[in-house]
Amino acid sequence: REHRLFERTKGINGLEKIIIRDRQGRSFEVYLYGGQVTSWKNEKGEELLFMSSKAIFKPPKAIRGGIPVLFPQYSNTGPLPSHGFVRNRFWKIEAHPIPVPSSHHSSSALVDLIIRSSQDDLKIWPHKFIYRLRVALGHRGDLTLTSRVTNTDVKPFNFTFALHPYFSVSDISQIQVEGLHGLNYLDQQKNRTRFTDHDKAITFNSQLDRLYLNTPNKIRIVDHKKRKTIVVHKEGQIDAVVWNPWEKKVSDLGVEDYRRFVAVESAAVHKPIILEPGKEWKGILQVSVVPSS
Ligand SMILES: O=P(O)(O)OC[C@H]1O[C@H](O)[C@H](O)[C@@H](O)[C@@H]1O
């Protein structure tokens, strides 16, 4: 049976999605709604991202799972709706993208998406922009999201940003997040009060919602039960968010769903990005899964 490497098809509720496969049987899916990756599978067909059992695939609701794009505002840090608005917009496929400069990923299993500020967007955020998102499957099955934002306006603008992957884990109480030891973070459950993390690794036994500042490029999620480590590599985004809601009520999340995911986000929040007219900002998130003991 022939496996199409690029497929554009209808997903849940008729929303359009793109499926990209490679010859090793790995794949990912992206919905044009939100420009949102909703699935990423390894060569064994195992799903590496989490999708809520109660996810609502109905605009204007955001899809609870996969990798939402949060732009031009992270969370409630400004006047816009929480997490900005591109996760609630329809993106397009960019047929002939301008080449990604100095791209070190010579992958062909990829898709280029694009969104431009609409007239309605300009009413709530008066800055013309183009956001280009390339999603690519690498030779070792890693997934890379390259974001490029261009200021197409005549004046500078500021934005905050995050990519919000919901990583699938065996059991939230069996994992730890490494790489943030000794760093300062803003506790988002305590009005963004600043603390220093003195723990060697983050473990989870209640709700946790932290914005880590000045973080290294690599963060690891060690899943002891699965004997796998998810490696989160980021460029151009100095902050990182770690979130799990635990038993806090989230309407589009199943009761036990919190046990099966952790969100580790690449973010640019504490110091907003300033973009001059005609200039482009670029950020990369690369995720991979490696064996661990
Ligand atoms: O419910 P949402 O708007 O999708 O936000 C979901 C979560 O996103 C981030 O991880 C924030 O740190 C959390 O404070 C927030 O609850």
UniProtKB/TrEMBL annotation:
One of its GO terms (molecular function) is carbohydrate binding. One of its GO terms (cellular component) is cytoplasm. It is an enzyme of class 5 (isomerase). It holds the Pfam family Aldose_epim. Gene3D superfamilies: 2.70.98.10. Its EC number is 5.1.3.15. One of its GO terms (biological process) is carbohydrate metabolic process. The active site is at H164, E265. Keywords: Isomerase, Signal. It catalyses: alpha-D-glucose 6-phosphate = beta-D-glucose 6-phosphate. Belongs to the glucose-6-phosphate 1-epimerase family. This is glucose-6-phosphate 1-epimerase. It comes from Raphanus sativus. The gene is LOC108819889.
